[in-house]
Automatic annotation (TrEMBL):
Organism expressing this protein natively: Sphingomonas desiccabilis
Superkingdom: Bacteria
Name by which UniProt lists this protein: DUF4276 family protein
Amino acid sequence: MKKVAIFVEGHTEAAFVRKLVIHVAGARGVNFISEVQHGGVFVQHYHDHSPGNDLEVLIANCCNDAAVLTFIRERYEKLAAAGYSSVLGLRDLYPLTHQELPALEAGMQTRVPDGDVPVQLVVAVAEVEAWFIEEVTHFTRIDPLLDDESVQVATGYSLSSRLAESLPHPAETLHQAYQVAGMAWRKTSSQVARTVSSLDFGFMLQDARKHSQSMDLFLCHLEEAFQ
């Protein structure tokens, strides 16, 4: 069984990555291990186990964007000893600016653990919500009022521009868009479940990734890890 560990910064990313893994894995079964960090200690929330599945994926919620690489470094040797073949890390750029991205990525690379198990780090530009925005078809599934024209009036951003990576604070843009239909985006559990369940992951894999370098990079690393 191939084992892959994915460290993310928060609940939104954890919920999204779980659904994404299912779609990328396709017909291959996946056993999930879900962990959440509390006070520097990871607590296991659940562990799916079906003997016939081909993949095991650990999703570790670090509850802090700056802590993703720190916890990868802390746990790297144990993950390698436990038979993990790949480690991925995902964090947002925000609240840093686009101009600070090169320095952030360069600094992260100097701290990547050196060993036989590859570690791939991806910074979602500027937040993973930009990836949700690039899945332009999900808006009207949430509510028919959320068409391109209404969203543009509310946010100043046109969904058809396909430039969500240029947004300085995508989560706020998503909130402003949802407000058209009297909804909100404040990353509550129910809001995360609503949005993630509305995403068309096939569309993300085939179309949306073409308009987001950071999304495409993460998907490429995930696809490679599952080979």
